[in-house]
Amino acid sequence: MIKCGECGYENMDGLDYCDGCGAKITAAASAGDGAAAPAAEPSAQPAAAEPVAASEAPTGEIKPPEPAPEGAPPAPEPSAGAPPAAAAAASVPRFKAKFEVVRGGRKGQEFPIEDGNSFIGRWDPETGSFPEVDLEQDDPEAKISRKHALVRIENGKITVEDIGSLNGTYVNRQPRLQPGTPVEIKSGDEIIIGKTFLKLVVEPIS
């Protein structure tokens, strides 16, 4: 049976014209074939669904940044480093130091030494600088340079260093110190500056 594309009448096979409307069956058949073609187009729609599924991928990529806020809590960790620093500071022995004139000049005169740098020398009227250990009145012969030596208290250690004096600096009557070379000194040590002898006295602080 051949169905007419114009009126839908079913004709016997082999007929060229429709018995119902007289339309040419071959032409109607070809028209029917053309109508079938659009029916195949919907089959392409499933392919269009694939990009939709692919577009869902970015939504999954947004999730990785979420763990970032979880890293915020570890921020307090730096505070863990504070206790060691405090412990280190506590481990440094606390004391007070001073120089006492034991020979030459004003015997018994004392000069407290603070943490950091302290200069030994004589008052300089030209620059108006005063060394922490001013031996101007203890050196009538001017054997001591204006800036003679440097004493440093750092990390619980005390050092003395000649800074290019004319007559040199001596510790416990040992050979003359090399300028710019610090030497550690302890309580009871004697520092010879010109003709003045200074004794280091260190007293712990309870």
How would you characterize this protein structure?
The chain is α+β, with helices and mostly antiparallel strands and about 210 residues long. Helix content is about 20%, strand content about 30%. The protein contains three helices and twelve strands, in the order E-E-H-H-H-E-E-E-E-E-E-E-E-E-E. The chain has helices at about 25-40, 45-60, 80-90; strands spanning about 1-5, 10, 95-105, 110-115, 115-120, 135, 145-155, 155-160, 170, 185, 190-195, 195-205. It is rod-shaped and about 150 Å long.
Keywords, please?
five-stranded mixed β-sheet, 12 strands, 28% strand, five-stranded antiparallel β-sheet, alpha+beta, 3 helices, single chain, 206 residues
Radius of gyration, in angstroms, nearest whole number: 52 Å
Shape: rod-shaped
Tell me, rounded to a whole number, the average pLDDT: 77
- Give, in order, the helices and strands: EEHHHEEEEEEEEEE
Which structural class is indicated by helix and strand composition? alpha+beta
**Biggest sheet, spatial arrangement of strands:** 4-3-12-11-9
Number of strands: 12
Helices, by number, come to 3
State the major sheet: 5 strands, antiparallel
For the terminal residues, how far apart are their CA atoms? Answer: 121 Å
Q: Enumerate the spans where pLDDT stays under 50 for 5 or more consecutive residues.
A: 27-62
Helix fraction bin? 10-25%
Strand percentage lies at: 25-35%
